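To whoever is on call:

I kicked off a structure prediction for a single chain this morning and the downstream step that reads the tokens threw a length-mismatch warning. I double-checked the sequence; it's 603 residues and nothing unusual in it as far as I can see. Pasting both halves so you can look.
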Amino acid sequence: MSVRALAAALIFSLLHGGAAAADAAPRVLRYAFPIAETGFDPAQISDLYSRTVMAGIIETPLAFDFLARPFKLKPNTAAEMPQISADFRTFTFRIKPGIYFADDPAFRGRKRELVAEDYVYSLKRHYDPRWNSPNLYRLEAAKILGLSELRQQVLKDKKPFPYGQEVEGLRALDRYTFQVRLAEPSPRFHQDVMTDAGNFGALAREVVEAYGEKIMEHPVGTGPFRLAEWRRSSRIVLERNPGYREVFYDEEAPADDARSQAIAAQLKGRRMPMLDRVEIAIIEESQPRWLSFLNEQTDLMERLPNEFAPVVIPNDKLAPNLAKRGISMDRAPMVDITLAALFNQDNPVVGGYTPEKVALRRAIALAYNSEQEIRLVRKAQAVPAQTAVAPLAFGYNPALKTSMSDHDPARARALLDLYGYVDRDGDGWRDRPDGSALVLEYATQPDQASRQLAELWEKSMKAVGLKIVFKVAKWPENLKASRAGKLMMWGVAWSATTPDADTFLALAYGPNKGGANHARFALPAFDALYDKQKVLPDGPERERVIAEASKLMVAYVPYKLSCHRIATDLMQPWVLGFRRNPFVREFYKFLDVDPALRAKEAK
């Protein structure tokens, strides 16, 4: 090479070497959970955060298109959409050949292909009493032929679950085909179960048997990522699965959504995942979580904390100082319900179906100020709930108004007086009708938002003469206690996995005690309506049944329903492709991070 050529090469290197190095840098997305995960076994988890991680590791046959609106199902590991019998009782899934699990010592050096039997095994695990699955209720509701009976036999005999025993309702027809047969019609079984990777994705039997009771620490799937690091309640790192099959970005953007259209055009044809790593910190307090984003220590602010909304998004528009930095926002309704309180129906104070017990819960619901929760605590980032069914879900009625959104302390006091909840000993607090002390015990968490809600509860109850005390614990601890029926009252949110009312009605379905039904509510009239709507295809008749069931939830008040939240997500300028899809947990699968732009902005 001549001296002139060497000089030119040196100059080019000096001018462009930094950009080349940035392009070669790992593409890393950093963001934070506000609540700690519980673990990573689909048969044992039910919380949103653990499921968000799992959805990037394991896979279901079907998935929702990331950008399509209205929401649209499409094949994922399945070769095509399932064959569904005319009576909605038989669902046949064919899996694509050539999909492989991530390498793991459990496979002893073998390249392990995903086969139909893996889905059969993974669904059976929820029936195995060993794992105490909190999601069993979703499969029990579908009434898969033979599996409930097999579970009962295992419980009776106290023997290990016989995974090799074939049952009529769940079997592999060949290497790549499995079939689910149901006792009753279930028009949405494929949508409700076969899209939820966080709970019903495929694990290999060898992996579960290799890790046993430690399977929560060793998830191995066929998805785009694998677990690289886990420090419980502190840090989670996912890294690209090098064995992930060829999948290319091909999402369908609505014609009337310019931003989604631009994302689809920019990323179309890119091989996924585009990210090399996803680094998740657990930052429970909202101020340090916000500061980490503001200081560019995180790339995505998923769900802006409510208290910062007036400054960050005044009038629901991004503040000019943030827009100048290239930060962008995505704002969308969440398909969820906030349960300001669940009332444990097995609790002798707030539970029960007699008129005085129902009156107590109604009075508490009327006394609680949901309007102040929305305005003061959530900073107007929510809309009042009339029933449990959320916007964007089938069965939601935007014109309906119920007493659930009322704040009426006078009516609450009148109800309490009428049913004998009066101050009998002169201490200033109402007592129970039998004269014993009436003390409400509310479970809560130590974070700032929970403290604000506790203050609102105390103020609301004091206004009608009800004494309330607070039991503080970490969220996973409260979740465990609630599932076991050990809490009197607790406030929590419930998010849908599919755009359907069934997710919300399941909160009050009697057989779901210990699962979705944290209130442990059991009302035959409600259960009959739930069972009826479940087998009906979508249409006016099903809408009518959903409305009747929703009204019973309002009348008996197993939950004080408060609001449906609105999420605002913020992205640094180097984050590409984000749009909120409430039914795609593994959103990070569809994102990219531009290292060159990140490096440029950092200067």
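Update from on-call: the warning came from a stale cache, not from the record. Cleared it. Sanity check on the structure: The two ends are 35 Å apart (CA to CA).
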